[in-house]
Amino acid sequence: MQNLLVIFNPQAGSGRSKTYLPLIESYLQGHDIEYQIKHTERSGHAQAMVESTDLSPFDGVVAAGGDGTLFEVINGLMSHKERQSISFGVIPVGTGNAFSRELGLLPTDWKKGIDVICKQQTKPIDVGYIQTAKEHFYFLNIVGMGFVVDAGKTTLKIKQLGQSAYTLATLWETIKLKAHPVKIDLIDEHDQTESIDEALVFVEVANSRYTGTSFLIAPDAKIDDGLLDVIILKKISRIKILSLFPTIYSGKHINYKEVECRKVKSITIRTTNPMALMPDGEFKGQTPVTITVVHQALTLFF
Protein backbone atom coordinates (compact mmCIF):
# COMPACT_ATOMS: atom_id res chain seq x y z
CA MET A 1 0.00 0.00 0.00
CA GLN A 2 1.36 3.40 -1.01
CA ASN A 3 1.80 6.09 1.61
CA LEU A 4 1.89 9.62 0.15
CA LEU A 5 2.64 13.07 1.51
CA VAL A 6 0.38 15.47 -0.40
CA ILE A 7 1.32 19.14 -0.38
CA PHE A 8 -1.94 20.88 -1.26
CA ASN A 9 -2.22 24.54 -2.25
CA PRO A 10 -5.78 25.77 -1.53
CA GLN A 11 -5.07 29.01 -3.43
CA ALA A 12 -4.04 27.27 -6.66
CA GLY A 13 -6.18 28.01 -9.69
CA SER A 14 -7.30 31.30 -8.08
CA GLY A 15 -8.78 29.25 -5.22
CA ARG A 16 -10.62 26.78 -7.45
CA SER A 17 -8.39 23.93 -6.23
CA LYS A 18 -10.36 23.74 -2.97
CA THR A 19 -13.34 22.35 -4.86
CA TYR A 20 -11.27 19.35 -5.94
CA LEU A 21 -9.95 18.40 -2.51
CA PRO A 22 -12.92 16.20 -1.40
CA LEU A 23 -12.81 14.45 -4.78
CA ILE A 24 -9.06 13.89 -4.50
CA GLU A 25 -9.37 12.43 -1.01
CA SER A 26 -12.23 10.15 -2.04
CA TYR A 27 -10.28 8.91 -5.05
CA LEU A 28 -7.17 8.21 -2.96
CA GLN A 29 -9.24 6.30 -0.44
CA GLY A 30 -10.87 4.32 -3.22
CA HIS A 31 -7.44 3.15 -4.32
CA ASP A 32 -6.44 2.12 -0.77
CA ILE A 33 -3.74 4.75 -0.63
CA GLU A 34 -2.60 6.03 2.73
CA TYR A 35 -1.92 9.74 2.66
CA GLN A 36 -1.24 12.81 4.73
CA ILE A 37 -2.31 16.19 3.38
CA LYS A 38 -0.49 19.36 4.35
CA HIS A 39 -2.05 22.68 3.29
CA THR A 40 0.10 25.59 2.23
CA GLU A 41 -0.67 28.89 3.95
CA ARG A 42 1.74 31.33 2.34
CA SER A 43 4.43 31.72 -0.26
CA GLY A 44 7.39 29.48 0.50
CA HIS A 45 5.36 27.27 2.84
CA ALA A 46 5.37 24.21 0.54
CA GLN A 47 9.16 24.23 0.38
CA ALA A 48 9.46 24.70 4.15
CA MET A 49 7.08 21.82 4.87
CA VAL A 50 8.94 19.41 2.59
CA GLU A 51 12.31 20.43 4.05
CA SER A 52 11.15 19.94 7.66
CA THR A 53 9.21 16.69 7.22
CA ASP A 54 10.65 13.25 7.94
CA LEU A 55 10.03 11.62 4.57
CA SER A 56 11.13 8.12 5.57
CA PRO A 57 7.55 6.84 6.20
CA PHE A 58 6.39 7.95 2.74
CA ASP A 59 6.68 6.37 -0.70
CA GLY A 60 6.15 9.65 -2.48
CA VAL A 61 5.69 13.40 -2.19
CA VAL A 62 2.87 14.86 -4.30
CA ALA A 63 2.48 18.49 -5.35
CA ALA A 64 -1.24 19.30 -5.64
CA GLY A 65 -1.54 22.76 -7.14
CA GLY A 66 0.03 24.61 -10.04
CA ASP A 67 3.57 25.14 -11.29
CA GLY A 68 4.36 27.40 -8.34
CA THR A 69 3.48 24.66 -5.86
CA LEU A 70 5.61 22.18 -7.76
CA PHE A 71 8.50 24.67 -7.85
CA GLU A 72 8.48 24.91 -4.07
CA VAL A 73 8.14 21.16 -3.56
CA ILE A 74 11.08 20.50 -5.87
CA ASN A 75 13.25 23.02 -4.02
CA GLY A 76 12.26 21.39 -0.75
CA LEU A 77 13.16 17.94 -2.06
CA MET A 78 16.49 19.04 -3.52
CA SER A 79 17.67 20.18 -0.09
CA HIS A 80 16.33 17.07 1.69
CA LYS A 81 18.68 14.28 2.74
CA GLU A 82 16.12 11.64 1.66
CA ARG A 83 15.53 12.94 -1.86
CA GLN A 84 17.35 9.99 -3.45
CA SER A 85 15.05 7.44 -1.81
CA ILE A 86 11.64 8.98 -2.53
CA SER A 87 9.62 9.68 -5.68
CA PHE A 88 7.45 12.68 -6.43
CA GLY A 89 4.21 13.11 -8.32
CA VAL A 90 1.87 15.80 -9.56
CA ILE A 91 -1.86 16.39 -9.11
CA PRO A 92 -2.62 19.34 -11.42
CA VAL A 93 -5.24 21.71 -9.99
CA GLY A 94 -3.63 25.08 -10.77
CA THR A 95 -3.96 27.75 -13.42
CA GLY A 96 -0.75 26.73 -15.13
CA ASN A 97 0.44 23.16 -15.01
CA ALA A 98 3.08 23.26 -17.71
CA PHE A 99 5.28 20.47 -16.35
CA SER A 100 2.27 18.17 -16.06
CA ARG A 101 2.11 18.12 -19.85
CA GLU A 102 5.19 15.85 -19.73
CA LEU A 103 2.87 13.31 -18.09
CA GLY A 104 0.10 13.87 -20.61
CA LEU A 105 -1.91 15.84 -18.05
CA LEU A 106 -3.90 19.02 -18.53
CA PRO A 107 -4.91 21.44 -15.75
CA THR A 108 -7.56 19.84 -13.49
CA ASP A 109 -6.63 16.32 -14.69
CA TRP A 110 -6.38 15.47 -11.00
CA LYS A 111 -7.82 11.98 -11.42
CA LYS A 112 -5.34 11.07 -14.18
CA GLY A 113 -2.56 12.50 -12.04
CA ILE A 114 -3.45 10.11 -9.22
CA ASP A 115 -3.68 7.23 -11.71
CA VAL A 116 -0.09 7.94 -12.79
CA ILE A 117 1.05 7.83 -9.17
CA CYS A 118 -0.89 4.62 -8.48
CA LYS A 119 1.00 2.79 -11.25
CA GLN A 120 4.16 3.23 -9.15
CA GLN A 121 6.15 3.49 -12.36
CA THR A 122 9.07 5.86 -11.93
CA LYS A 123 11.97 7.38 -13.88
CA PRO A 124 14.94 9.53 -12.87
CA ILE A 125 14.73 13.07 -14.26
CA ASP A 126 16.91 16.16 -14.44
CA VAL A 127 16.54 19.37 -12.46
CA GLY A 128 17.84 22.81 -13.39
CA TYR A 129 20.07 24.74 -10.98
CA ILE A 130 20.21 28.55 -10.88
CA GLN A 131 23.03 30.54 -9.29
CA THR A 132 22.71 34.32 -9.11
CA ALA A 133 24.90 36.83 -7.30
CA LYS A 134 22.69 36.66 -4.22
CA GLU A 135 20.92 33.28 -4.16
CA HIS A 136 20.60 29.82 -5.63
CA PHE A 137 17.62 27.56 -6.26
CA TYR A 138 16.28 24.84 -8.53
CA PHE A 139 13.69 24.65 -11.28
CA LEU A 140 11.95 21.76 -12.97
CA ASN A 141 10.32 23.27 -16.01
CA ILE A 142 11.77 26.47 -17.49
CA VAL A 143 13.39 29.79 -16.59
CA GLY A 144 13.00 32.87 -18.75
CA MET A 145 14.05 36.50 -18.97
CA GLY A 146 13.01 39.47 -21.08
CA PHE A 147 9.67 39.48 -22.89
CA VAL A 148 8.49 36.28 -21.20
CA VAL A 149 8.90 37.82 -17.75
CA ASP A 150 6.90 40.89 -18.77
CA ALA A 151 4.16 38.62 -20.10
CA GLY A 152 4.27 36.60 -16.89
CA LYS A 153 3.75 39.71 -14.75
CA THR A 154 0.77 40.72 -16.86
CA THR A 155 -0.62 37.19 -16.58
CA LEU A 156 -0.53 37.49 -12.81
CA LYS A 157 -2.81 40.52 -12.97
CA ILE A 158 -5.46 38.65 -14.99
CA LYS A 159 -4.90 35.16 -13.57
CA GLN A 160 -8.58 34.82 -12.70
CA LEU A 161 -9.27 34.41 -16.41
CA GLY A 162 -7.71 30.94 -16.25
CA GLN A 163 -5.65 29.40 -19.04
CA SER A 164 -6.50 32.20 -21.49
CA ALA A 165 -4.62 34.66 -19.25
CA TYR A 166 -1.26 33.51 -20.66
CA THR A 167 -2.37 34.10 -24.24
CA LEU A 168 -3.92 37.50 -23.57
CA ALA A 169 -0.90 38.68 -21.58
CA THR A 170 1.49 37.70 -24.37
CA LEU A 171 -0.54 39.56 -26.95
CA TRP A 172 -0.69 42.66 -24.74
CA GLU A 173 3.08 42.71 -24.14
CA THR A 174 3.68 42.50 -27.89
CA ILE A 175 2.57 46.13 -28.09
CA LYS A 176 5.55 47.13 -25.90
CA LEU A 177 8.01 44.77 -27.58
CA LYS A 178 11.70 45.59 -27.13
CA ALA A 179 15.08 43.86 -27.26
CA HIS A 180 17.76 44.02 -24.54
CA PRO A 181 21.57 43.86 -24.82
CA VAL A 182 22.55 40.40 -23.58
CA LYS A 183 25.86 38.53 -23.27
CA ILE A 184 25.65 34.75 -23.13
CA ASP A 185 28.29 32.08 -22.60
CA LEU A 186 27.29 28.49 -23.38
CA ILE A 187 28.83 25.06 -22.83
CA ASP A 188 27.13 22.62 -25.21
CA GLU A 189 26.60 18.86 -25.08
CA HIS A 190 30.06 18.28 -26.57
CA ASP A 191 31.73 20.60 -24.01
CA GLN A 192 32.30 23.22 -26.71
CA THR A 193 31.96 26.87 -25.68
CA GLU A 194 30.07 29.60 -27.52
CA SER A 195 29.50 33.28 -26.80
CA ILE A 196 26.60 35.45 -27.95
CA ASP A 197 26.56 39.24 -27.60
CA GLU A 198 23.54 41.01 -29.11
CA ALA A 199 20.12 42.46 -28.44
CA LEU A 200 17.54 39.76 -27.66
CA VAL A 201 13.80 39.83 -27.01
CA PHE A 202 13.89 36.85 -24.66
CA VAL A 203 15.95 33.91 -23.48
CA GLU A 204 14.27 30.72 -22.27
CA VAL A 205 16.22 27.90 -20.65
CA ALA A 206 14.09 24.76 -20.60
CA ASN A 207 14.31 21.41 -18.87
CA SER A 208 10.88 20.36 -20.20
CA ARG A 209 8.89 21.25 -23.29
CA TYR A 210 5.93 23.40 -22.26
CA THR A 211 5.41 26.79 -20.68
CA GLY A 212 2.16 28.57 -19.82
CA THR A 213 0.43 25.15 -20.02
CA SER A 214 0.00 25.06 -23.80
CA PHE A 215 3.03 26.80 -25.34
CA LEU A 216 5.38 24.18 -26.81
CA ILE A 217 8.34 26.49 -26.32
CA ALA A 218 11.08 23.82 -26.36
CA PRO A 219 9.75 21.00 -28.57
CA ASP A 220 13.00 19.01 -28.47
CA ALA A 221 13.57 19.19 -24.72
CA LYS A 222 13.81 15.97 -22.71
CA ILE A 223 13.59 15.79 -18.95
CA ASP A 224 16.20 13.06 -18.62
CA ASP A 225 18.93 13.81 -21.20
CA GLY A 226 21.30 15.74 -18.94
CA LEU A 227 20.89 18.87 -21.07
CA LEU A 228 18.97 22.15 -21.06
CA ASP A 229 17.35 23.55 -24.20
CA VAL A 230 18.02 27.26 -24.79
CA ILE A 231 15.54 29.19 -26.96
CA ILE A 232 16.56 32.69 -28.01
CA LEU A 233 14.38 35.24 -29.79
CA LYS A 234 16.36 37.92 -31.61
CA LYS A 235 15.09 41.31 -32.71
CA ILE A 236 11.76 40.93 -34.49
CA SER A 237 9.03 43.30 -35.67
CA ARG A 238 5.70 43.49 -33.88
CA ILE A 239 3.90 42.31 -37.00
CA LYS A 240 6.15 39.30 -37.39
CA ILE A 241 5.92 38.27 -33.74
CA LEU A 242 2.14 38.23 -34.12
CA SER A 243 2.54 35.67 -36.91
CA LEU A 244 5.12 33.76 -34.85
CA PHE A 245 3.02 33.68 -31.70
CA PRO A 246 0.39 31.10 -32.81
CA THR A 247 3.13 28.72 -33.94
CA ILE A 248 4.39 28.34 -30.35
CA TYR A 249 1.41 26.09 -29.63
CA SER A 250 2.81 23.55 -32.11
CA GLY A 251 6.51 24.24 -31.58
CA LYS A 252 6.98 25.49 -35.13
CA HIS A 253 8.27 28.87 -33.94
CA ILE A 254 11.76 27.35 -33.92
CA ASN A 255 11.67 27.45 -37.74
CA TYR A 256 11.74 31.27 -37.76
CA LYS A 257 15.14 32.77 -38.54
CA GLU A 258 14.82 35.06 -35.50
CA VAL A 259 14.67 32.02 -33.20
CA GLU A 260 17.83 30.12 -32.26
CA CYS A 261 18.04 26.94 -30.20
CA ARG A 262 20.90 25.24 -28.38
CA LYS A 263 21.32 22.17 -26.19
CA VAL A 264 23.66 22.98 -23.32
CA LYS A 265 25.10 21.77 -20.06
CA SER A 266 25.56 25.31 -18.78
CA ILE A 267 24.61 28.88 -19.68
CA THR A 268 25.73 32.17 -18.14
CA ILE A 269 23.69 35.30 -18.89
CA ARG A 270 24.84 38.88 -18.28
CA THR A 271 22.92 42.08 -19.00
CA THR A 272 23.77 45.77 -18.86
CA ASN A 273 21.28 46.25 -16.03
CA PRO A 274 19.94 43.44 -13.80
CA MET A 275 16.96 41.73 -15.43
CA ALA A 276 14.34 39.67 -13.60
CA LEU A 277 14.13 35.91 -13.98
CA MET A 278 11.00 33.76 -14.04
CA PRO A 279 11.65 30.14 -12.99
CA ASP A 280 8.61 27.86 -13.33
CA GLY A 281 6.24 30.82 -13.46
CA GLU A 282 7.63 32.41 -10.29
CA PHE A 283 9.44 35.77 -10.09
CA LYS A 284 12.71 35.02 -8.38
CA GLY A 285 16.30 36.08 -9.01
CA GLN A 286 17.93 38.36 -11.55
CA THR A 287 20.89 38.52 -13.89
CA PRO A 288 23.80 37.91 -13.90
CA VAL A 289 22.99 34.21 -13.63
CA THR A 290 24.54 30.83 -14.34
CA ILE A 291 22.17 27.95 -15.06
CA THR A 292 23.25 24.32 -15.06
CA VAL A 293 21.58 20.91 -15.10
CA VAL A 294 21.65 18.31 -12.32
CA HIS A 295 21.35 15.01 -14.17
CA GLN A 296 18.89 12.45 -12.76
CA ALA A 297 18.48 14.46 -9.58
CA LEU A 298 14.97 13.28 -8.65
CA THR A 299 12.64 10.35 -9.29
CA LEU A 300 9.26 11.05 -10.90
CA PHE A 301 6.07 8.99 -10.90
CA PHE A 302 5.70 8.66 -14.65
Automatic annotation (TrEMBL):
GO terms for molecular function: ATP binding; kinase activity. GO terms for biological process: phospholipid biosynthetic process. Keywords: ATP-binding, Kinase, Nucleotide-binding, Transferase. It holds the Pfam family YegS_C. The keyword Cell cycle does not apply. Residues 1-134 form the DAGKc domain. Gene3D superfamilies: 2.60.200.40, Probable inorganic polyphosphate/atp-NAD kinase, domain 1. InterPro entries: ATP-NAD_kinase_N (IPR017438), Diacylglycerol/lipid_kinase (IPR005218), Diacylglycerol_kinase_cat_dom (IPR001206), Lipid_Phosphate_FormReg (IPR050187), NAD/diacylglycerol_kinase_sf (IPR016064), YegS/DAGK_C (IPR045540). NCBIfam families: YegS/Rv2252/BmrU family lipid kinase. This is YegS/Rv2252/BmrU family lipid kinase. It comes from Marinicella litoralis.
